[in-house]
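Sample intake sheet
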Amino acid sequence: MKSAYTKPLPKVTSEDRPFWEACKQHKFVLPKCKQCGNVWFPPYLQCNKCLSPNREFVEASGRGVIWGRIEMNQPYIPAFVDDIPYVVALIQLEEGPFIYTNVVGATNDTIKVGLPVEVVFDDVTPDFTLPKFRLLPS
């Protein structure tokens, strides 16, 4: 059995509630503007291109490419001290937006810019699921 999850969790708001509810169902969704077709992340209430509030959540591919990475070697957040060193990756999703995340199932030295990734879901508590990513064969 997993021990109690002690790391910080996002505070769910009306803006992002559909995203987190989909993650709980192991689905990766993104907001899409019904006015201009723009897809964005994080899921703000209004389109970040045309500012329309007319959005819907669409199922996304869950695939992307590592665009940037940083290896954390200092415990800036005390709950992550046992994970040092760990990589935070910036993923450009196939749909265009970027997401900061962790790459799981890989050693820090194998997490490189340009590598393809896909979403996986980590049920960290009975009520909360985090999207993370894993490397795909290149």
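Comment: The first strand starts at residue 29 and ends at 33. The chain has a mean pLDDT of 95.
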